[in-house]
């Protein structure tokens, strides 16, 4: 069963086709990876799915509805959340405050209630804090709850971004190069974290250049080149696809093993 279906999706910038007539489906509860060379259009696909870019054509079907062109807050509210290729944390806020910020789509604080700090608001604040600690424990950062986000080592910042995304309780989580810049141990922790996210029943779509990680964790891989899909399938099929080896790997099949 698919949780997301992208159909004939297109997005251009001037003469550059970032995404061209792209179609793929994301199976519920699985890991789908988007791979391809730099500039292939991977992040643009995420930007279209999450409403950061308005596609020129195509459909993005999620929850039985075409969400293409809807604003980001509505898409998050429907259960899709993402992390960014370049970490985007609130650097001056604490770790727990960053996770709390991820829950704004789930709380209903109107202006009047905020001004008068009603009992309901106080209860909501307490719930947000408890849930924030829950997600910090989930990613292994609870001990650092009062540190400023900018003080965390790089690998922990990446996990904090994931905690913030999970705090909006998505059914579909999009990770844009989650392993970029991680050392070996951090990468292994990331792999375990993605596996525990799957156990929650959250479906994962991942953009990643780290082929070792992609081949180990993906159920399905979609390969892009110049905005178009050149191959898709399980890791074993993609690894041996000549078009993929030529386009992405410069003709070196060892790079995909
Ligand atoms: N906002 C934008 N304005 C102009 N061009 C853009 C914009 N966003 C993407 N592009 C162009 O679209 C193409 C695809 O970019 P995109 O960032 O989606 O690639 P990518 O596969 O994520 O690459 P990388 O692996 O380097 O992150 C590139 O040619 C890029 O320059
Ligand atoms: Mg990118």
SSE inventory with pairings:
Blueprint: E1 2-13, E2 16-27, E3 31-35, H1 42-49, E4 57-62, E5 65-66, H2 72-78, E6 80-82, H3 95-101, H4 111-116, H5 119-139, H6 154-166, E7 172-176, H7 184-199, E8 203-207, H8 211-217, E9 220-225, E10 228-233, H9 235-239, H10 242-247
Parallel strand pairs: 3-8, 3-9, 6-7, 7-8
Antiparallel strand pairs: 1-2, 1-4, 4-5, 9-10
Bound molecules: adenosine-5'-triphosphate (ATP) and magnesium ion (MG).
Adenosine-5'-triphosphate (ATP) is lined by residues 13, 16, 18, 36, 38-44, 85.
Short synopsis of the structure:
By secondary structure, the chain is α/β, with parallel strands linked by helices. It is 37% helix and 24% strand. A hairpin with a 2-residue loop joins strand 9 and strand 10 (228-233).
Explain this structure.
- With about 260 residues, this protein is α/β, with parallel strands linked by helices.
- The protein has a domain of about 120 residues: P-loop containing nucleotide triphosphate hydrolases (Rossmann fold, 3-Layer(aba) Sandwich), CATH 3.40.50.300.
- The protein has 10 helices and 10 strands.
- It has a 6-stranded mixed beta sheet, with helices on both faces. It has a 4-stranded antiparallel beta sheet with strand order 2-1-4-5, covered by helices on one side.
- Helix 5 crosses helix 6.
- The longest helix is centred in the middle third of the chain and has 21 residues.
- The structure holds adenosine-5'-triphosphate and magnesium ion (MG).
- Adenosine-5'-triphosphate (ATP) binds next to strand 2 and helix 1.
